[in-house]
Amino acid sequence: MSRTRGFTLVELMVVVAIIAILAAIAIPSYSRYAYRARRADGQQLLLHIANAEERYYATYNKYAGLAAIGYASADSATSEHQYYQASVDVADGAQSYTATATRQGAQQADVCGNLAITSAGVKTPQTSDAAANSNGHCW
């Protein structure tokens, strides 16, 4: 009597179940890392704007909009990888500002929401989920 070689259906189902469990663990973890990496694009844009605003303030003793600090558009600036679009709101007689980076494209589902930085250096995520920034990981 010859025995055929191969895998039984039960063995194949066990392998499929193991792969499904590993995928269920790996995919959400990968997504969190991808959002965090793309978030750095928005952080870089805001820090660049804050740096330009402080240089402008050192020269003119007031803050200004994006066009005055060297950006092509007065309305918005796009991050290097186009995951964020920033705008600047100058207030208090040009003595303070808030720069906000709004999520774009693949970054829209990030739990940290939009990012913001003020002239006082306060960095905040604009999220409704308090637990998302409970340990400061959004900035």
From TrEMBL:
Extract the signal peptide range: none
| Matching SUPFAM superfamilies | Pili subunits (SSF54523)
Q: Which InterPro entries match?
A: N_methyl_site, PilE-like, Pilin-like
* Record-linked Pfam families: ComP_DUS, N_methyl
Q: Which UniProt keywords apply?
A: Membrane, Transmembrane, Transmembrane helix
Name the Gene3D superfamilies for this protein. Answer: Glycoprotein, Type 4 Pilin
Which processes are annotated in GO (biological process)? type IV pilus assembly
Recorded protein name is Prepilin-type N-terminal cleavage/methylation domain-containing protein
List the source organism.
Answer: Dyella solisilvae
Upper classification of the organism? Bacteria, Pseudomonadati, Pseudomonadota, Gammaproteobacteria, Lysobacterales
